[in-house]
Amino acid sequence: MPDPVKLTIDGKAVEAAPGTLVIEAAKCVGINIPSFCYYEGLSLQAACRMCLVEVEKAPKLMAACTLPVAEGMVVRTETPVVAEARKYTLEFLLTNHPLDCPVCDKGGECELQDMVFRYGAGESRFVENKIHVEEKQWSPVVFYDGPRCILCFRCVRICNEGMGVGALGIVNRGAVSEIAPNHGDHLECDECGMCIDICPVGALTSGTYRYKTRPWEMEHVGAICTHCSNGCKTTLGVRNGKIIRGNNHDRSGINGEFLCIKGRYGFDFTSHPERLQSPQMRVNGKLEPVSWSIALAAVAKKFGAALASDGRIGVIGSTHTSNEENHYLQKFARGVLRTNNIDHHRSGDVVTLLDALSGTTGSLASTADLYESKAVLVAGADLSSEQPFLAFQIRGNYRHHQAHVYVVTENEVREDGIAAESVRIARGGELEGIRSLAERLKTESELAIVFGDSVKGEAVRDLVAFGSSLGIPVKYVALVDYSNSRGALDMGLVPELLPGYQPSNRPGMTIGEMLDSDSLDVLWVVGANPLKASALRAADAFVVVQEMFLTETAQRADVVLPAASAYEKTGTVTNVCGEVQRLSAGPSTMGAKPDLEIIGLIAREMGQAAAAGPWAPDKVFAEIRATVKGYDVPMPVISAGGAAHTTPVNGRIPVESRPDLIHSSRDTLFTSGTLGRYSRMLGSVMEGRRR
Amino acid sequence: MTFSPQLEAKFAKLLGSYPPGRQRSAMIPMLMFAQDEIGQVTQELVEEVASRIGCTPLQVEEVLTYYSMLHKKPLGKYHVQICTNISCMLTGGTELWEHACGKLHIGHREVAPDGLFSLEEVECIGACSWAPAVQVNYDFHHQVTPEKLDQLLAGLRSANAV
Ligand code: SF4
Ligand code: SF4
Ligand code: SF4
Ligand code: FES
Ligand code: FES
Q1: Distance (Å) from the C-alpha of residue A65 to the closest C-alpha of chain B?
Q2: CA dihedral A339, A341, A342, A348 (to 10 degrees)
Q3: Residue A641: inside a domain
Q4: Residues B62 and B129 in one domain
Q5: Per-residue DSSP letters for B110-142?
Q6: Smallest Cα–Cα separation from B67: which of B94, B30, B93, B100?
Q7: DSSP-assigned letters across all residues of A250-282
Q8: Residues of chain A with pLDDT under 50
Q9: pLDDT score at A128
Q10: Can you tell me the distance from the alpha carbon of A78 to that of A64, in angstroms, rounded to the nearest whole number?
Q11: Same domain, yes or no: B46 and B108
């Protein structure tokens, strides 16, 4: 560590590492220097002049956003001269800016409004007509209102640098400069809305949120995105029980400001008109709405009868439900229904990875590791499309830490653009491609390897053996598909594994075996859609489905129970890297209940409430912490909305590896399994339709 | 897109003049030279230049719309640029400009119907010592009066008729 530089800011002594910018050094002592174009983590622009400060012995005001600290520097951030300069800067920014804040979508959370409020500029000396251009719509997501734009370049930089897309630019010059999209009159991009969220003013607005509400009329709920496995925090703006907005403007959570289109706009499935709001039961061959008590009684009766006659019961769990629900479901299945026939859609070979890593510590990468590791290798996945936040972390690592990125994929991927080396190799052959990089990888000081579903079974063992042979610390991420795919595995929604990867002594049937069995009496599906691609062989099986929509599986059900979404309940989920985070309930959908409560009610109806145990999320989580290996995470971290890294088993998992059951749906930015079909926003962007 | 061998040779020289990975530095001269040959910067040209220097068409567009000497619309065969910046203004540049507009019946950045002339009111072209100054394509004309301008235009017109 080089010696810190000592300086004074507003009379306070500050020590900062050499190279630190004055604007950042000031933050360390609680001084906020106003800025528009400066944005932590992006390249410097020095375009707005809002951050001017007085520096002793400097002949003029200096831009704090580009000024590195120097020994003995004396900085003053709030002097009359500085205040006057800011006032003039604002007067200029307002030359052509409309003064209609009361009807601007950004009103109430606009940085320009806040600054004008703070520094005055209440009067303007400009009497010329304002230059006006009409607002433009560039995609279902992005609208641009030129006159409001203060040309801070934040949107351009986040799209270029943060997203690696480069869909925005600035055209023309002077007072008629404006932001332009990459395809003349429209955008073809990730539709992530990062540009909108980062815009300090109301120039960029979103098709989802614009003109629906005022920010202070919403309740802001910190939820975890329920689409892919990356576990981004999305702050839901809820008004009158309905989600109107998703963003992460406060940069809380593991994902900082990042959200992809699914986390930012894909919440709209919650208010889809086809959302189920009442239980349904098959009467004379047709599903008809019934009351909860009738539906629950029918389910309990069937379950009870099947138990009494020693019938075959199969349970299929979800990759979106909470850890609590998954744990409770398997406990119910194993303890009350006395079956190990419980499974879920497996999308990555976590089991073999954990087994192969037995005896090592610190070998599972967190999302933060992908941002910090000196080298990262991506194998068998189009990360920017399939695991958007992980890709964002790696791009950030490359930009900020010059990480060496290696890519081993079948087709070209966005990561090629930042790769030290890319290898093209057919799916399934990734290991060979990785081996070809051995000499280069040995020169790295550490490595994080992220691999997709084509690396499974023996290949995972070989990969870990290869990693150990490099002689450097190596961490791994086995990619999985959905928001709680990892939690489903950890909680034992697997016929051969109990929670915490403990082997079950009497393995039950897999999904395929359940669907193929001709003697299945009861099939209970909680938040999954197995019948989308396969048929149920047992024609007489009684099918109970807990779902949000009438999916292919729900259509075959005898009883459908309307379930709450992940945004409507509390509990925890575990992301692809094994980080546990808490869900909070935002809106509510009338008639729907959280799966945990539904399962609890079934238990009570069967007279098995005592055996199944309490079904309050907190109680179940306490049990998980006490009994599931690796989940003894610090409660304060979870309660405060943080992410706690779990460290599951560190020992052999003596079960037969089943690579044949592992298959990723390879959802893109614009698809999200069955759930994605019910998001209008995902369906409306052209990039989604094209794929 | 195909260009003349001479232009291709210029491009090759340009692209070789910058260190590897910095080929986008050739963007402005490439656009200028190509514009001279084609008469305008077309969308096709934008895409061609972008792919040759390894940037996005939008990045070319950013530069193209910033510089006033790069034109997306076709110009007249003779692009008449009249300076009305301070030195020229003081010596009759504004009157000269108005005279030209009246004479050719076109305005700023417009092209006469026969395609022979286009007009542009420009900022200082660095010929203040001989103000008012006029630039036609790449040729400079000094201390221009309305009469001299008429002669100049007539001369170009007849030269073109032959
Ligand atoms: S939505 Fe995302 S990808 Fe599209 S222009 Fe904005 S930042 Fe870029
Ligand atoms: S659109 Fe917004 S973020 Fe982009 S330059 Fe304008 S003010 Fe800045
Ligand atoms: S990257 Fe995944 S978790 Fe994050 S917002 Fe997108 S879909 Fe949601
Ligand atoms: S914040 Fe320093 S110039 Fe914009
Ligand atoms: S002002 Fe006209 S050439 Fe300089």
Answers
A1: 25
A2: 140
A3: yes
A4: no
A5: EE-TTSSEEEEEES--S-GGG-S-EEETTEEE-
A6: B30
A7: T--STTTT---HHHHHGGGGGG-TT---S-EEE
A8: 691
A9: 87
A10: 12
A11: no
**Range of the structural domain that residue A22 is part of:** 5-93
Domain count, chain B: 2
For residue A267, the CA-to-ligand 1 centroid distance in Å is 18
* pTM (predicted TM-score): 0.94
Mark whether A305 and A427 lie in a shared domain.
no
Q: Which amino acid is present at A149?
A: C
> Of A656 and B14, which is predicted with more confidence?
B14
- B90 in the same domain as B145: yes
> Does residue A637 share a domain with residue A512?
yes
The atom number, within ligand 4, closest to the CA of A64 reads 2
pLDDT of amino acid A127 = 86
What CATH number is attached to the domain comprising A160?
Answer: 3.30.70.20
The phi and psi torsions of A546 (rounded to 5 degrees) equal -100, 115
For residue A119, what pLDDT is reported? 87
Q: Give per-residue pLDDT as tens, A180-233.
A: 999 999 999 999 999 999 999 999 999 999 999 999 999 999 999 999 999 999
> Which strand (E) or helix (H) includes residue B62?
helix B57-66
Residue B155 domain flag: yes
Q: Look at residue A448 and tell me if it is in a domain.
A: yes
Q: What is the pLDDT of residue A691?
A: 45
Q: Check whether residue B84 and residue B45 sit in a common domain.
A: no
Q: Which ligand is closest to the CA of A231, given by its number?
A: 3
Q: How confident is the model at residue B162 (pLDDT cuts 50, 70, 90)?
A: low
Burial of A94 (0-12, 13-18, 19+ CB in 10 A): middle
Is A170 within 8 Å of B62 when comparing Cβ atoms? Answer: yes
* Beta-carbon separation of B58 and A170 below 8 A: no
The amino acid at residue A601 is L
- Output the pLDDT for position A690: 55
- Would you say residue B124 lies in a domain? yes
| pLDDT at residue A368, as a whole number | 97
Per CB-CB distance under 8 Å, the chain A contacts of B109 are none
Burial (CB count within 10 angstroms: exposed 0-12, middle 13-18, buried 19+), residue A581: buried
Tokens of A319: 């990759």
- Tell me, in angstroms, the distance from the centre of ligand 4 to residue A36's CA: 6
Per DSSP, the residues of A563-586 read B--GGGS-EEEE-TTSEEEEE---
Among the partner-chain residues A167, A168, A172, the one whose CB lies closest to the CB of B65 is A172
Q: Copy the structure tokens of residue A425.
A: 């190799």
- If asked whether residues A494 and A531 sit together in one domain, one would say yes
User: Is the same domain home to A494 and A609?
Assistant: yes
Dihedral through CA B124, CA B129, CA B134, CA B136, nearest 10? Answer: -90
- What letter represents residue A133's amino acid? V
Q: Is the CB of A21 under 6 A from ligand 4?
A: no
ipTM, 2 dp:
0.87
Out of A47, A75, A93, a domain closes at A93
B112 and B147 co-located in one domain: yes
Domain that holds residue B29: 5-66
B114-126 confidence digits (pLDDT tens): 999 999 999 999 9
Mark whether B82 and B154 lie in a shared domain.
yes
Say whether B58 and A182 touch across the interface (CB within 8 A). Answer: yes
Nearest ligand to the CA atom of A141 = 1
CATH code of the domain covering residue B19 = 1.10.10.1590
Domain count, chain A: 4
Residues A447, A564: one domain? no
Query: Which domain CATH number covers B141?
Result: 3.40.30.10
Cα(A155) to ligand 2 centroid in Å equals 6
Residue A215 lies in a domain: no
Residue B71 lies inside a defined structural domain of this protein: no
Query: Environment class of residue B54 by beta-carbon count within 10 Å: exposed (0-12), middle (13-18) or buried (19+)?
Result: exposed
Tokens of A237: 């703006």
Answer yes or no: is pLDDT of B161 > 80: no
Is the distance from the beta carbon of residue A191 to the nearest atom of ligand 1 less than 6 Å?
A: yes
